[in-house]
Design brief:
Strand order of the largest sheet: 2-1-3-7-6-5-4
Number of domains: 2
Number of strands: 7
Radius of gyration: 35 Å
Largest sheet: 7 strands, mixed
CATH superfamily of the largest domain: CorA soluble domain-like
CATH class of the largest domain: Alpha Beta
CATH topology of the largest domain: Beta Polymerase, domain 2
Distance between the termini: 53 Å
Strand content: 15-25%
Shape: rod-shaped
Number of helices: 9
């Protein structure tokens, strides 16, 4: 969140559509990976500049350019001029932390989604904004750093299996969004395993460490929910066929993707409810534990009430106390004390308080 506010403050007073990356560069040099394919041919190249992609050197039925690194705004503006991207789209591309959304500019579609990965050592969800620009026969994707969930899509393109090579740009966009949604299920599964572990520890021995873990997971679930729920609207709009760039044959796949997002969203809500229940379980366990301690202390205090009375009576400094002169007064005193304690225990057990 602090990074988000720094970027917002950095753009105070700037004109709408100002393409300026205000965050620190996360890689030294922008990485460009281009693919061009059709049912019977495939080309893949790592580019040193965007010129081969702009001048048509890399040609094919459908072209895909993946850009890693958002700090090179000059290349982005050249891409925008070549493909007619609106300045507001270019501004959103270099401004991370955008809400997942879909914007239809008739000649192309602009989509934003959040790619979520789970960091095992820290137990936190790491997010990265992915921007997709889908044209009639081309797709542009923009990320902050190399490394994504699209390796499966690249492998299918290289192998030429399935309908990906002949599906066009709309089907490629579907495959990329489907890979993002599939990664949500991986993250949700890992979060579920952590929730099960915390639940077992809470039932065995609740302590403040488990409560802190529950609060941390609740924050991560909120973060995950912000990525999953808005994406429903994006895929729903694509599935309804409001854009001419999405043919009817591809809308069926977006409908299936919409169902997957609903499943992921429901899983997130279920785990959020479970975490709330775990928090209540912790508070109940601590309360029950405290009640047991108070119960034991109360029983001990109750047993000592008659003993305190007897000791108080015979500890008074009266000169004439006939019992003090009896031979069996001391054993009788202990017999009365033990009898009083035994009688109190029997009464407490009869009442069901023991």
């Amino acid at each position: 969140m602090p990074q988000l506010f720094r970027q917002r403050r950095g753009k105070l007073g700037a004109a709408p559509g100002t393409v300026e990356f205000l965050g620190p560069p996360r890689i030294d040099r922008t990485r460009l990976q281009a693919m061009a394919y059709s049912p019977d041919q495939f080309t893949e190249r790592e580019l040193a500049s965007i010129d081969p992609f702009l001048d048509g050197t890399i040609a094919g039925g459908c072209r895909w350019l993946n850009v890693d690194g958002l700090h090179d705004t000059a290349n982005l503006q050249r891409l925008g001029d070549r493909f007619g991207l609106h300045p507001l789209v270019q501004e959103d591309i270099v401004s991370p932390h955008q809400r997942p959304k879909l914007e239809d500019y008739e000649d192309y579609l602009y989509t934003v989604c959040q790619m979520i990965t789970f960091d095992e050592p820290t137990g936190r969800c790491l997010s990265e904004q992915v921007s997709l620009v889908v044209g009639p026969d081309w797709v542009l994707t923009f990320q902050e750093v190399p490394g994504d969930v699209f390796d499966g899509v690249r492998h299918r393109l290289r192998q030429g299996k399935g309908r990906l090579r002949g599906g066009g740009s709309a089907y490629l966009a579907y495959a990329l969004l489907d890979a993002v949604v599939d990664s949500y299920f991986v993250v949700i599964e890992q979060m579920g395993l952590r929730i099960e572990q915390i639940e077992e520890r809470l039932l065995a021995k609740p302590d403040a460490e488990q409560l802190a873990a529950v609060h941390a997971l609740k924050r991560e679930m909120i973060h995950l929910r912000r990525a999953v729920w808005p994406l429903r609207e994006v895929v729903g709009a694509l599935e309804r066929g409001e854009s001419k760039l999405v043919p009817k044959s591809v809308r069926l796949f977006y409908r299936d993707l919409y169902d997957h997002i609903i499943q992921a969203a429901e899983a997130v809500e279920t785990y959020r409810d479970i975490l709330t229940g775990l928090q209540d379980l912790y508070l109940s366990s601590v309360s029950n534990r405290m009640n047991e301690v108070i119960k034991v202390l109360t029983i001990i205090g109750t047993l000592f009430i008659p003993l305190t009375f007897l000791v108080g009576v015979y500890g008074m400094n009266f000169k004439y106390m006939p019992e003090l002169g009896w031979k069996w007064s001391y054993p009788l005193f202990w017999l009365i004390c033990l009898g009083a304690v035994g009688g109190m225990l029997a009464w407490l057990k009869r009442r069901g308080w023991l």
